[in-house]
Design brief:
Length: about 300
């Protein structure tokens, strides 16, 4: 039976913790340990977790931390996690897992070459007001480094990954990373940029809870989707991601990823470079509307 370490970052989510933790320890077909880092909660979450730990004393560990945000909190969990596990999984504090969530991931991951970095991801079922709603993040594409350089395509709460990816994450100084991209997006970039693979399950195995304090929502209209692609800002977010990734992973990345990054890093130097990037088929989002917006981003120097 495979051993999986679940990594959870908590912050002022006391009303959701019991249901989520119980669902994590109800997983079938795998051995589960839970490592929680509380990111400076002030609602009693820390005290509740310590009292709840008695129920799962041998398989649940809690780290008390200062508030550093979800991204660095999750990355810190990776850095302190022991190497004795077969797989690692992210968990949000407010979701509810199906009992087959982890075994579904393990079965797909075991079919792949464990020497390369691997990530498993799946869709989610919306859960709001006690009602189960639509399925989101239902993707069937084979995602590439160029895709993830544009945007992230699924939430970290569904992700399960192997030890090789964990090693690569730990090779960079997380304290120096900017607030964006988030932890899940960063792992997807590392995986696909360093010769790895993202495996997509087409079936959901998680209830994704929607409430007023969700950090990342799933309902976005067309205007919101256009705005998030950076067309109306001068932040050059993707350029900064490319520069940071090249700095951190130049010694690990594939030749294809290195070539893409060099194009992105130099795209603003001339209009010729911009059009080279525009027509590079490897650096494209999945959907048609986003392709048009990203093309405009590059031409206008806002990529």
């Amino acid at each position: 039976m495979k051993k999986v370490l679940v990594l959870m970052s908590t912050f002022n989510g006391i009303e959701f913790l019991e249901e989520q933790i119980n669902s994590i320890f109800s997983q079938i077909g795998v051995e589960v340990d839970l490592l929680i880092r509380d990111d400076g909660s002030s609602d009693g979450s820390r005290e509740y977790l310590w009292s709840y730990r008695e129920k799962f004393n041998d398989v649940m560990r809690i780290i008390k931390g200062q508030n550093i945000g979800a991204k660095k909190s999750f990355l810190e969990l990776i850095c302190v996690a022991k190497d004795e596990y077969d797989f690692y999984a992210f968990a949000d504090q407010d979701d509810i897992w199906d009992e087959d969530k982890l075994i579904s991931a393990v079965r797909l991951l075991e079919k792949e070459n464990m020497k390369m970095p691997l990530i498993y991801a799946s869709p989610v079922r919306e859960f709001k007001g006690g009602e189960v709603g639509k399925v989101y993040f239902n993707e069937s594409n084979q995602f590439t480094f160029g895709n993830f350089l544009i945007k992230n395509y699924f939430p970290g709460c569904t992700m399960v990954f192997n030890g090789r990816l964990k090693q690569l994450v730990r090779s960079c100084d997380i304290s120096q990373l900017p607030s964006y991209p988030l932890h899940d997006h960063w792992l997807n970039l590392i995986c696909t940029g360093c010769g790895g693979k993202v495996i997509i399950d087409t079936e959901p195995h998680i209830l994704y809870r929607i409430h007023d304090r969700n950090e990342v929502g799933i309902r976005k209209n067309i205007v919101a989707k256009i705005m998030e692609n950076g067309l109306f800002t001068d932040e050059n977010i993707r350029l900064h991601i490319a520069e940071r990734f090249y700095q951190e992973y130049n010694g690990y990345m594939s030749s294809d990823a290195r070539e893409i990054l060099k194009k992105v890093i130099s795209y603003k130097k001339s209009m010729k470079n911009r059009f080279r990037l525009v027509f590079d088929r490897r650096v494209k989002p999945i959907r048609y509307l986003e392709k048009i917006v990203i093309m405009m981003n590059v031409i206008l120097g806002k990529f």
